[in-house]
Amino acid sequence: MTATTLFYIIIALIVISFIIDKILDALNAKHYNDPIPKEVSDVYDESAYNKSQRYKKTNYKFGLLSSTFSLLLTLGFFFFDGFAYVDALARQWSSHPIVITLLFFGIIMLGSDILTTPFSYYKTFVIEERFGFNKTTKDTFILDKVKGWLMLLIVGGGILALLTWFYQTTGDLFWIYAWALIAVFTLFINLLYSRLIVPIFNKQSPLEDGDLRTQISNYAEKEGFNFDKIFVIDGSKRSTKANAYFSGFGSQKQVTLYDTLINDLEAEEIVAVLAHEVGHYKKKHIIFNLFASIILTGVTLFIMSLLISNPLLSEALGVDTPSFHIGLIAFGILYSPISEATGLIMNWFSRKFEYQADNFAKTTYKAEPLISGLKKLSKNSLSNLTPHPAYVFMHYSHPTLLQRITNLKG
Q1: Which residue of the set 259, 264, 269, 358 is catalytic?
Q2: Which of 45, 50, 291, 353 could form a disulfide with 285 if both were Cys (CB 3.0 to 4.6 A apart)?
């Protein structure tokens, strides 16, 4: 195989992926006006339903515009030797392989972020604002950007530097050391995400005493589950959309409720949502996802170790000097079909786990408040009640609202 052939294979993968995504988006958009099934016909009144239709259509058009821009930007970077230019620029500033790698990815990521920030700004301050979701101030938007850059510089840069060092010093064993590093980091983040990462962006405080905490405590006591760590996060500083999540395991497990969730749902509905989250924990879904992620990472790194040193990868991107960072870019695109396949499998497991967690909540608490809570959350986020099955299969990590309600009533 020649470098030119590999170049066009890479371009084909990028374009095919884009086309498949746009076909799925178009199929999904055609279903926006489908009749609403009677099981979810009470989610929207006429005014709210019309608003949800406008929201979906606006996001569809915006997504088409922003993704087309990203595609053209990416293709332009490939066809006009953008990688070779950035690589040469990084090598002008340093001859150290680790520094070159950090500069290379730093320039690309910063440039990409600057070019796509206007889209992010429009999405937040025009679309989300128009439909009543946005609570983000411009100061918060800018501060989030700065914090994100700093985290990427410190955490992402540190991991990338270590991966480059492993590649330079351990030869064929590179993938094992890299796997160990990423596995430890993944475990660390899963254990301490709520303690270390969340406070950088949000304030979280223990749930105050009252009827809600009493009902939660009663449920926890019945199930023999330690619910000491229940925190409320100020999600309303950015959006009116509600959420809840479970993080950590063992002594570090913690439940976090968005303040918007507490405002939108009744106490009984919130307990039902928490019962669903407890179901994920009791059914070992968190542990499964953690170790599945680590195993998939190991497989990816092993395959990468077999290919990344091939100079053909660098030549395909127009770079004369083979390097870890150029090989990483080429491999990432060539591996994307496998990554897409494993993503589909993990989404299938995720949807299956959601049913199991719903059934746990139904068995240990009640189905009715979970159903009513899910309906309220769907209404408040203007969710699509009639998604195309192919779109669900490819993109949804949760079953549709209709599927979940049908399961809970079964």
Answers
A1: 358
A2: 353
* Residue that is written with structure tokens 């989250």 in the block: 277
* Burial letters 163-190, b for 16+ CB under 10 A, else e: bbbbbeeeeeebbebbbebbbeeeeeeb
**Locus of tokens 């088409």:** 64
Is 320 a residue of the active site?
no
Q: From residue 396, how far is each of 39, 111, 285, 318, 400 by CA, in Å? A: 20, 30, 17, 37, 8
Say whether 139 is catalytic: no
Residue 72 is which amino acid? L
392 neighbors 384 (Cβ within 8 angstroms) = no
Low-confidence ranges of the chain (pLDDT < 50): none
- Cβ atoms of 131 and 51 within 8 Å: the answer is yes
- Written as six digits, the tokens of 57 are 């259509």
Nearest to 219 by CA among 258, 273, 263, 262: 273
Quote the tokens at residue 193. 């995400």
And the tokens for 264? Answer: 């939108």
Alpha helices in 255-323 (DSSP H): 259-264, 267-282, 285-307, 311-316
The predicted-structure confidence for 194-227, as pLDDT tens digits, reads as follows 777 888 888 888 888 888 888 988 898 888 877 6
pLDDT of residue 250: 67
Ordered DSSP codes for 114-130: HHHHHHHHHIIIIIHHH
Reading the block at residue 184, the tokens are: 């430890």
Pure H helices in 80-96: 82-93
How far apart (Å, rounded) are the C-alpha atoms in residues 170 and 289? 29
SS3 helix, strand, coil % of the chain, rounded to 5? 75, 5, 20
Which token pair is 123? 């999405």
User: In this predicted structure, what is the pLDDT of residue 33?
Assistant: 86
Q: HSE-up of 375 (CA within 13 Å, CB side)?
A: 20
Closest Cα to residue 257, out of 243, 247, 268?
243
pLDDT digits (tens, 9 = 90+) for 64-81: 999 999 999 999 999 999
The residue count for the chain: 410
Distance CA(148)–CA(158), nearest Å, equals: 15
- Name the catalytic one among 128, 264, 277, 354: 277
Beta bridge partners of 35: none
Residues whose CB is less than 8 angstroms from the CB of residue 70 and which lie 6 or more positions away in sequence, other chains included: 116
pTM given for the model: 0.89
